[in-house]
Amino acid sequence: MEHAALRPQSRAAAVGLGVLAAATLLAPLSCGARPALTGSARGLDVFVTLIDAAAAGRIGAFGGERPTTPFIDQLAAAGTRFARTSSAAPYTLASVASLFTGEHVDVHQVIHPGDVLPAVLEPLAGRFKDAGYRTFGASANAHIHARYGFDRGFETFEWFDPMVGAVPHHVVPDTMLASIERQLASDDPRPAFVYAHLMPPHAPYDPPPAFRRLFAPDLADGRAGSIENLTPLSHGARVVPPAEARAILDLYDGSLRYVDSVLARFGALLEREQRLERTLWIVLSDHGEAFGEHGLWQHSRLVVETMLHVPLVLRAPRGFAGGSLEGRIIDAPVSLVDLAPTLVELCGLEGRRAQSGVSLVPLLSGARLDDRPPIVARTAGPGPYTSVRRGDLKAIYHAGNRRWQLFDLGADPLEQSDLAASRPADLAPLVTELETWWQRWRPYSVGVRERVQLGAEERARLGAIGYFVAPTDVESEGDAKGDAKASGDAPMPARGE
Question: Domain 4-372 class?
Fold first, then answer.
């Protein structure tokens, strides 16, 4: 179903919007600045929909070539899309902790399985609750659970166990759909903050038959997209033949099309309930997904763009702020850690300000954000990789071997050519920026992390989606995808080392 409010623009109009968006980004604030947006969304419903492991490059509105996301593309055409959004970490636990708190990983320290969201950091849901919103959270991800503090701030938080009965991870449980839809149709007079964490298209890639047939009509079975097949590939255990690679992508794209249909179902409900035009709807992912570009598949292990680049779409009611958010493309690099402070400012919420994330309201208002901190992301370990990005230049530091890499994302978006040796003058400022960034934010770390012991049941749930966690990992610096031991952060090397 195509929703009237979300109908795509004609190709000519779309091209015109792209030119207008580019002109807006280049224009100084003094030349036709957009209306001030601070507090302008106060009282609107806010619906945050996270689709897990959604690779931005497979989504039509972000350059995907297949019809994987017709509904998301409609939302993007009717709203604002952030074309270059990075997650704060290439795996769920740390990324969603940053999303909820507006703080970077080195501040909140929710890094390894068993880490608990720190009580000293007020989550976004709590800010909305304090402002008089009804708050509801729903998750089917084993990491995003009340056990680890992710229910804080929600009046109601429901976790849906995809291992109960015959409901697998690769579909959205009917019970979860029903619960979210009850919230979207509620007659509670208070404005609502709703967070929905949907597992597809996260592995296993096994879409319902109707969606598999869209891209893989001749595929005999879905074994290529199983956890048993994909997990060795995430460690680079073997080279994937072209036919198998195509099968994996076909199954992934079918999963993406399936979850897009779930969002379309939500959109139809909001229209029926006449809530769409009083809802600020955000669609995003927690991290990207790799398909062999660096010899690895899935996510977690590297801070390359395929694992970090995520979709971020903000769809406001028609006419909101004079239509200033309709049909816009913002090309400035941003981070998911910036979403919480952005929503706080848009909705006029009170309380503690995020320190390491920054509000994107200036970008939404038509200004530049020239003084923003660099875009930083990191892995869990071993000897974590940390990336620092400024514009198209991105440096990666591997603490395990004290090595720097440099990439020009404009010329080399898949990060195939390391320029560290040939362009030391471009690397040096990024080295300084990361050193300064660590000196600035590590003192604000929450300190000793609260952790819970993972039992066999919790490890089994994580294992079902590819996170193989040993019983001792809760006490180690283990990698999110299965390395039991690792070193901590090594010291920064001296210049030229």
Answer: alpha beta
